[in-house]
Every structure is written in C-alpha cells, then in structure tokens.
Amino acid sequence: MALVDLARLGWWLGPRADAPPPPVEREALTIAPAAPGDRPFEAWVFTPRGRAPDGALLLVPGLHPDGPADPRMARFAAVLAHAGLCVLAPFLPDLTRLALAPTLMPDARRAFAALEERAAALPVKPGVMSISFGALPALRLAGHPDLRDRIGGVLTFGGYARWQVALRFAMAGGDGVPFDPLNRPAVFMQLVDALPPLADRARVEAAWRGFVHETWGRPQMKADGAWQPVAERWAATAHPDDRAVARQGLGVDPAGPAVAEAAVARILAGGGRGWLDPRPAVPRITAPLYIVHGADDDVIPVGEARALAAEARPDQAVRVIVTGAYGHTGRGGSLLREARSMIGVLRALRAIATHER
Q1: For the whole prediction, is pTM greater than 0.90?
Q2: Does the residue 176 lie in any domain?
C-alpha cells in the first residue's frame, strides 16, 4: 500500500496538479480552549474515502486569511488524505489574521492534541508539516520537551530561520532573485507595533488584509501595473492621517523598505522578539527533520533552508531538499528534470506521517 500511496501523491502533485482534488472525506472540528485565555478555533480533518488511514499529519498553514480554506491548501490536504493519511489542518487565529504571535505555539499544541486523539487507534506517531511562516509553530512544537517523543517526523516547506532576513527579502528581494510584491502588507503586519502611532490602526490593518485577500493566490496580480491600482484603492480606505503608512505597507510608496528596516532595527534594539526565532528548537527535535525549499522561492529565500539545517546537532537526522519542481505556493519547474527531488519530498511526506510508535 505504501508504494500505491506514493504513486497517488506523485500523480496528484505532479501530472494532475491542476486538476480538482481527489474525493476524500472532510469534516470541521472545533478546537476548544484548554486554559483561561485560550481561543477556540476551527480545524478541518481530511481522511481517505472508503478506507482507514494508515498515517496522521498535522498540516500547519502559513500566513493566509483563508487558512486551510485557501483552495491550494485544501487541495493539498485532500491529496495527502487520498494517499492514506488523516490530515488535520487548523485555522490558527494568528496566522489567519496575518500575524506571528506567541499565542501560535499553545494553539499549535492544542491542534496536535486533537490530531493525537483522532489518530489514537493508529500504530503510528503523527507527523507535523508546515508551510512558509508556519515553520515557527511547527518547529517549536516538534522541539517541545513534552511532545517531541510523540512526533513521528517534521517537514518544513519554504520555512524561515531568521525572521529579519525573511521580512527584508519580502520587502525588497535580494541577490538578484525576483520577489513577490504582494507580500509587503504581511511584512508591515509584523512590524506595526514598531511604527509611529497610528490614528486608526484597525483601518490600516483592514486595508492591508483587504489587499491580501483580493490579490493572493492570483499569479497575474504580481505583474507590474496590475497590483498597484488595487493597493491604491485599499490605501484610500485608511484614515487620512495614516494613508502614507498604508501605502508604504502596500508597496506603492517607495519609502516602504526604509520604514520597515527602521522598524526592524527598533525591534532588535528592544530585545529582538526572541520567540520569533525557530532556530533554538531545531537541535531539540528528536524526530527526523526534512527541510524542503523551492530553489526559486520568491517569498522566503532558499538560504533560510540551509540556515535552519545549520542549527542541527551533528547526530541529528536532518535532510535538506532544494527543489525546482515546486515554488513557494505551488508547482514550479519541470517535474521530469526535478524527479529526484520530487520523489524525495513525496517519500518524506509519507515517512513523517507513518512512523511507527
């Protein structure tokens, strides 16, 4: 069955990557608070149709207002379920509001506990996979002393090691690599506390989120001349005194990168937000760790994969896979040319979710 399921993964993530998702079961689950101050949130559970799963996976999305409801994420989870896995994809409240926050970690732990409960009858340890900035809660989860021995494996896709490097790249690119101009509002969302006081912060953040909701997932919007009118329209919804900052965060004010850099400097001078750094978690992970990154990633530079791997212990089971077959949010280059890396990714996906207890 493992070979059949690998073939299913390859088929639906390769030649059939543009087809509708395969038929699977999906149900909505509410993750209840476990302690005072916790927030309830929803998760989607995907399971194979017509057979029992033989593996389990927590799928941690990146920053996106739709979370697992983003069609690309929902399709990916369905493909994994079609290949025999029980997949739990949580709508982590911070990630859906485009914010990295300390509350991500306890929320991720509750999501993992919900998956463990669903997969209790399986003879495997659940695995953890993250997309993009979801690497922060995923790696911290996998390195948690109370959880690491209960996790079968970890895979990060397009994750980051140094938050300031990732944010700078999202604002201005680097090393001649094209970058996605649609991501600047997400950068400013992380830096808003370090900006000068705003007249109406809620309206500015609503403008940034509105732009993201309208443009993300639409590759044609990355073209010069396509996204700027949308940005200007959303900037006009901010308080008049805040419109300059709104435009900086939307990328239409050329002062944006310098403003963002100044905000990063203020954060670092004030202590640096150590909880944003996933690197200390890496050497604490005892499960196999796969660090996968697109060679031409236009959101988080590929060097971040190597920076994560550099934190591993000498005896740690870590593998870095750099692929041209997939970009940051979908299929990338030639599948034939990248067959070896693609097979490595597919095997890693099955391995982390089917590790025996």
Answers
A1: yes
A2: no
Cβ atoms within 10 A of the Cβ of 341, count? 19
Alpha helices, DSSP H only, in the chain?
2-13, 71-82, 93-96, 104-118, 135-142, 163-172, 184-191, 201-215, 227-235, 243-250, 256-269, 303-309, 339-353
The two beta strands, 41-47 and 85-90, are antiparallel
Report the domain count for the chain.
Answer: 2
Can you read off the two tokens belonging to residue 56? 């389990």
Q: Which two tokens stand for residue 33?
A: 């608070």
191 and 108 part of one domain:
no
In a domain, 177, yes or no: no
pLDDT single digits (tens) 11-55: 888 778 889 999 999 999 999 999 898 999 999 999 999 999 999
Which structural domain range is residue 261 located in? 183-269
- Regarding beta strands 41-47 and 25-31, do their DSSP bridges make them parallel or antiparallel, or are they unpaired? antiparallel
Residues 92-128: tens digit of each pLDDT: 999 999 999 999 999 999 999 999 999 999 999 999 9
Residue 178 within a domain: no
**Domain boundary, last residue among 216, 234, 269:** 269
- Residue 182: partners with Cβ closer than 8 Å, 6 or more residues away: 211, 212, 215, 216, 221, 222, 227
* 236 phi and psi angles, rounded to 5 deg: -65, -15
